[in-house]
Structure formats: C-alpha cells, structure tokens
Write a structure and sequence with these properties.
Chain lengths: 148, 406
C-alpha cells in the first residue's frame, strides 16, 4: 500500500459507505434500468444492481439487497465512480479495480476511494464480496449493447 | 469427564494446524487417524469390488461392508437389514422423498415440516408436493424457536402422511423429543415420522427402536467419518414398500427384455452401483472411535462446554445470543450492528473457524429477525481454551475491519 494512505481513512471510507450508502435504493422507474441479481453460493450476499445508460453515458447506478460491509461499500463507491462515465470508461475502472483486488498492476488514478479495498487479497474469502458489485456492473455493461 | 487434550492427539488436523480454533462442527468434523487408516486399508490392501466374492480379496470387502453395517445397526439399535448406505443425509432424505413420498402421496395428503429445517429436509418435500400435489404445512415453533407436541397437535390431522423433522436443528440446536412426537403421530394419524439425525446422531446416544421413528438419516462426515458416506435407516416393512431412487448394478436379482425387474430385498435394493467402499470402511472406523469414547460421555462433555461457553459469552455486552437455552453444542449469535459474514471473516483472521449466513435454514430468518447469524458449533475435541479465544475475539468483534487492515 502507498505509504501516504492512512489506514484509518480507508476504514472510515468503508464504514461510511456501508453505514450510509448513497446509492442503495431501488429505482423509482425500474423499467428504465438494466438490472441483474448477483448472489454467491458461499455467503448470503444477494444484490440487485441497476444501471441506466443514455447516449452511451451512465446516468444512474443503484443497488439494493442484503450484503456485508465489503460488498455494500465497494458497490456504493463504484456507483459514485461510474455515474457520468461512458460505458468504456466504466469498464476500464472496473478492470483496474479488479486488477488491484487480484494483485495485478492497476491504474490507481481512476479507482478513487476503491483504494480502501487494497488489502482484500489478504483475506481470500472476501474477494467475492469485494467483486460482487463490480461483476454485476460488468455483466450489465457487456451484455447490454442497447441503451436504456 | 473425557480429556479433550488427550483426544486431540488422535486427530492429524490438530497436529498439522496446531493453533486452529475449529468451531464449525455442525458443517463437518475432523477425522482421527483410525478413520483415515480404515479408508486406507481399503485402498492400500483390500481394493476389490463388493458383491463379487469369487476371489478372496473381494470376499474380504464383502465381509468388511457387512461388518460396518452391523456396527451401524448396533450404533443406532436397529436391525442390520434396516441400514442402507448412502452418500449422506441429503441423499438419504431424497431417497425417502422420491421413493416413498412420490409413490404413496396424493393431492389429498399433507406433509408437516418446521421453519427451522435444513434445506435438505425441505426441498425434497417441495419436489414431492410438486409431483403429487400433496400440501406442505409447517408446525408452528414457540417464540424461542422450539418444536413442541402441543404445536404439533394443532396441525396434525387425518390428512397428514409425513412428519419430517430434525432431532436437533442446525441453527437453533434444540433437542426435539422424537419419541414423544412419534408416539403421538402414530396414535393419532396414518403418518410416518422421518427423523433428520444429521445434527443429533454425532452427539448423543440414538436408539431407533426406542424413538420409534420410521426413518432416520445421517451423514458420516459429521461424526468423524469420511465425506460421501451416510446412512438411511428405515423400518424394514417401509424399506420394502419404498422404491429405489437409483437402479442399476447390484440392486436386482434378474431382469428381462420386456422390462420386468426383480429387485433384491433391502438394503441391497437401494445400493445400486459401486458404493463408496473406502467411505464405508472409514464410517466403521468412526463408529468404533465414537463408541470407544462413549456417546454419553460425548454428550456430557458437550453440555459442559456449552454451559461454559454460554456463561462466558453472556458476559459480553455486544452480543445477541439466539438460542441461549438450547441443549447442544450449537450456539447462534451476532455481534450487535455487525453483519454476520463480516464477523466470521474477522474471527477467521484470528484463526477461529465459524460459519455465517443462513446455514441452509432459509425459512428461519423472519423468526430470528436477522438475515444472517454467526454459528458456533462444538464437538468433543473442543476445549475451554477454544471458547476463551472465541470470547476474546468477539469482545472486540465490533472492530471487524481490523481483519482487513492488519
């Protein structure tokens, strides 16, 4: 981890997005959103991920469901990052974030507060939690060429 | 009282993981050397298929399988011919559902379960309901989550054909009085009683004659045996009536091109295909091991350890304990304000193995008022030191993100 990043701040980032997520909502007009359910056999995390795209720009990203701290916080931060990006930019951010999780070289510039999850590899059982949301967004971005 | 320190010397997992605090015994258990040796005996010096006694080696395997069947029968006080080898409790339960439920139930019939049942004692009955139209009803539990005879009386009627319940439920750990329930069910209905023994058989003396349940299922791996081996016990007349779920080699006497088949008598009727022979050897080793310690000693020690754990856990202010009054080694809790999986991951970072989530009892979450819980489950090789380490970790359990940053 870069020496400049204080662990206390990283903890606060995670706890803040877990306790007070800004994007943990069901959309009012659900039919305007792409939607995917993400769950895992190894835990009870069960998230619905919502994405609204217009003119190749992500205009809204939301999620809802039951999830642990790590998956809730990482998904909420991702929503922050993806909104107002193009689909290509969004996929790039997701790729860089997942590179960090899997200990590959990554572009730190673009992942913002997701840096808080830099230690995930130390607890192998949390990799799934840390990537549940990003996998959901990836699925929606890759499988839906049309706009909504 | 038994000495867990001495007992641990029998388990290679403790030699190879000296600092492990393993408290997930409701999921699976460690195996003593003697069980591993028994599995190896099959692989190292007695490899041959059963039912093929033309040569000495194959004959030896037949004798070994037969002797383990005898051991199981003695272990649960049944007849030898009432013991069917399966892959585990889930398989056994599916065999009853498909082989008995699907064959004999109709849309006029009812199946009674409880909300606390494990998926393996719920989903097979959903299938029966789908196929036959039989209705599934739930025996209400008390506020505490217990199954009582009074509540059974409210729902048992002339339509009830199956009452399928766990003797010890895997989340709340209460002991259900199967004997009392079986007596009431048999006297007041035409129903059979199916007993899920996955969480009870490893921990207490079981006598199927005394309980008078019609079927009992359990797994080998939860009682120090190998994975992939389990038992289906059934009263012999019911086993005769029941259809095999699987058919094939080894379960039939003859068949012809017109499709006529003469199945062998139980238990062979239910044991088509080459069985998990090494698993059967190992199961025999596990039963020997447990009987040598004594099931009453195991139960006594687990009660002592549970009491110690509850008393100590209760001193922690940050916990919610969901089954303080249960009798068995299953303790279900949450650290206030912490998602169960976050807590389990934190405990993992302290070398403590527990399970979080719904524990395959997905109907129970509304009753508990929690979407997930942390389950601590004990066995006779756990020690007071294990409990002390757990309590120490839980004390700081609110700081669960430590696991993420240290």
């Amino acid at each position: 981890m870069p020496i400049s990043i204080d662990q206390k701040i990283l903890r606060e980032i995670i706890m803040d997005h877990y306790s007070h997520p800004s994007h943990k909502n069901k959309p009012v007009n659900e039919n305007e959103y792409f939607k995917v359910e993400m769950n895992s056999a190894s835990c009870i995390d069960d998230l619905f991920i919502y994405l609204k795209v217009k003119d190749d720009i992500i205009v809204d990203a939301l999620f809802d469901g039951i999830a642990c701290t790590i998956s809730t916080a990482s998904t909420d931060i991702l929503c922050d990052l993806l909104i107002s990006k193009t689909k290509r930019e969004a996929l790039y951010i997701i790729e860089q974030y997942q590179n960090m999780i899997f200990e590959k070289p990554y572009d730190e510039e673009c992942i913002g507060e997701l840096i808080a999850f830099i230690n995930t590899h130390k607890q192998a059982s949390r990799i799934k939690c840390a990537t549940l949301g990003s996998e959901g967004f990836k699925k929606l971005l890759e499988n839906n060429e049309d706009e909504k | 009282m038994l000495d867990p320190i001495k007992i641990r010397k029998d388990f290679p997992m403790y030699k190879n993981n000296p600092n492990i605090v393993y408290l997930d015994n409701a999921a699976t258990t460690f195996k003593p050397y003697s069980v591993i040796d028994e599995c190896n005996r099959y692989y190292l010096s007695e490899t041959a298929n059963a039912h093929r006694g033309d040569y000495d080696l194959a004959y030896k395997v037949d004798i070994a399988v037969d002797s383990v069947r005898e051991k199981v029968a003695k272990f649960i006080n049944s007849k030898k011919i009432e013991v069917v080898f399966t892959s585990g409790a889930s398989m056994s339960m599916n065999m009853i559902a498909y082989g008995y439920g699907n064959k004999y139930l109709t849309s006029d019939d009812e199946i009674l379960l409880t909300e606390a049942e494990h998926a393996s004692n719920v989903l097979p009955w959903f299938k029966v309901s789908e196929v036959t139209g039989a209705k599934i009803k739930y025996i209400p539990l008390t506020k505490e989550g217990r199954l009582t005879i009074d509540n059974l009386k409210k729902v048992l009627n002339e339509k009830t054909r199956i009452v399928s319940i766990a003797q010890v439920t895997n989340v709340l750990g209460y002991i259900v009085d199967i004997k009392e329930i079986a007596k009431y069910v048999h006297e007041n209905s035409n129903a059979i009683v199916v007993c899920d023994g996955a969480q009870s058989v490893p921990h207490m003396k079981i006598d199927v004659k005394d309980l008078d349940c019609d079927f009992l299922v359990f797994s080998g791996h939860k009682l120090c045996g190998p994975t992939g081996i389990g038992v289906l016990y059934g009263k012999y007349n019911l086993l005769q009536k029941m259809e095999p779920l699987m058919s094939g080699g080894g379960d039939n006497a003859k068949f012809d091109m017109c499709g006529n088949v003469a199945y062998l008598e139980p238990p062979a009727k239910f044991e088509a295909g080459t069985m998990n022979l090494a698993g059967i050897y190992g199961l025999g080793g596990a039963i020997d091991y447990l009987m040598n310690i004594g099931m009453n000693n195991i139960e006594e020690y687990e009660r002592y350890l549970r009491k110690y754990a509850i008393n100590k856990l209760k001193t922690l202010q940050n916990l919610i304990i969901y089954n303080e009054n249960a009798e068995t080694g299953i303790i279900t809790l949450n650290v206030k304000g912490v998602f169960s999986q976050d807590e389990a991951s934190y405990l993992n970072s302290k070398g403590i193995c527990v399970r979080s989530g719904e524990h395959c009892a997905k109907l129970l979450k509304d009753r508990l008022g929690a979407s997930g819980t942390v389950r601590v489950s004990l066995y006779f090789y756990n020690t007071v030191e294990d409990i002390d380490k757990l309590c120490l970790a839980l004390k700081n359990g609110g700081d669960f993100l430590d696991a993420y940053f240290n």
